[in-house]
Design brief:
elongated, alpha+beta, 5-stranded mixed beta sheet, Alpha-Beta Plaits, 5 helices
């Protein structure tokens, strides 16, 4: 279980970009050494710019806060969550296979559809896109490759209309002899 102490956003246990990248590096090294799976999920809110254009920056900030809290609630206490950009979150799920990552993403997407968010007095349907990459069976050598694969998967999910997850296999870099 992670300590929800001072370096975190105390409201919901979210690490900064620097902290989450450091934790990713450590957890990836452990997964390699002890040969367990590790899932990397990138989560982003669909059509966020359109919402901002319609309702302003306060509505955008409110929605981002809601999504951050949703992702924190729908992941395990042993998972790590960090904000890697203004509008994206990286979740690191230790001891989680691709199948477990799909289950987690399905749970996150379903919870987003149930959010009761209102702007201008009207309820708004909220959807998310999730990019998934997993370290399993030594399929990649570097944690950055895992994050890049998750970023590509997130882009693919968004380009397909959002409200979905995409799993991308990380590229295995060739070893230099």
């Amino acid at each position: 279980m992670i300590d929800r102490g001072s370096p975190l956003d105390s409201a919901c246990g979210v690490f900064s970009l620097t902290e989450i990248r450091h934790l990713m590096r450590i957890e990836f090294s452990r997964a390699q050494r002890y040969e367990y799976p590790l899932a990397c999920l990138l989560v982003a809110c669909d059509r966020l710019d359109a919402l901002r254009d319609l309702y302003g920056y306060e509505a955008r900030a409110h929605l981002l806060d809601e999504v951050k809290n949703l992702v924190r609630r729908t992941t395990r206490s042993c998972d790590y969550l960090g904000q890697i950009a203004d509008d994206r979150w990286l979740a690191i799920l230790p001891h989680t296979s691709a199948e477990g990552a799909r289950t987690a993403a399905t749970r996150i997407l379903a919870a987003a559809r149930e959010l009761d968010v209102r702007f201008g007095g009207s309820p708004r349907r909220i959807t998310l896109s999730v990019g998934i990459a997993c370290y399993e069976r030594e399929n990649t050598l570097f944690f950055d490759t895992l994050v890049e694969a998750a970023e590509e998967a997130l882009t693919e999910a968004r380009n397909a209309g959002g409200d979905r997850f995409v799993v991308r296999e990380p590229a295995r870099a060739a070893r230099q002899e």
